[in-house]
Amino acid sequence: MQRELEFKLKHITLRGMGFGDSNKPMILALHGWLDNAASFAPLAPYLADYYVLAIDLAGHGLSDHRSPDAHYHLLDFVYDLHELVEIQGWQRFVLMGHSLGAIIASLYASSFTERVDRLICIEALGPLTKSATTSASQLRESILNRLNLSTSPSTRPKTIARVINARAFVGELSVSSAELLVRRNTSERDGQLFYRTDRRLRTVSALRMTEEQARAFVSSIVCPVLLITGDKGFETFASEIKDRMTRLDLGQHVCCSGNHHVHMDNPTDVALKVVNFLE
């Protein structure tokens, strides 16, 4: 069973998808950058003993965009998550995230240890980092990038098929997986296609954490952690992840066959690892 969900926060409305029986133990799922809740549609049927509640992060999928005077800072996603948890009254739950969602989940689990029973991270553990010496240039690039975006015209997709094929190529994922993401990230009005995702999501981050900060966050996670990576997944910070894993008291790392979207293109293998971890 699959249904659409809506959650009104104080300043934004988030939407998402519920998979399975809501009376079963909940897995709260967070998708990756420029993806959406449909990212977990291939995996959810294999987790029949759980209720998978997948959220569209702000600016993604069917969720609201942030106001024109706001932006998409990493820590604001963590804020949204906790406001959602508080409003819904969720006391203890399994938290699962992919890529950006895994970064957000890691930060949340380290800061609100009393809420997260177990943490499942797919293709990320903790934030992307840069040396503190790059901070000034990072901020400069971010500001110039945002100003440039604000004055440049937005683009519209010409055909849904073209967008799906481009998403599959760029993301190195199957066409069927790309279609799930694209269908939820686009809309049609008066015969014309539009992107639902907020284009401000594509701007350069204003600041990156340092590796020292990232290690401190990961070290603060007290629940059992499962890290799942694809054997052909992102290697952007593979060495950092190895170090971060050593800072977990209850961490395990498993590898599945697949690329960055391994949970979409190889859901059976990923689900087996998840179920074994949760049991």
TrEMBL record:
GO terms for MF: hydrolase activity
Ranges for domain AB hydrolase-1: 25-136
Top-rank taxon, per record: Bacteria
Alphabetical UniProt keywords: Hydrolase
Gene3D superfamilies recorded: alpha/beta hydrolase
Family: Belongs to the AB hydrolase superfamily.
Protein name per its UniProtKB record: Alpha/beta hydrolase
Organism: Paraglaciecola aquimarina
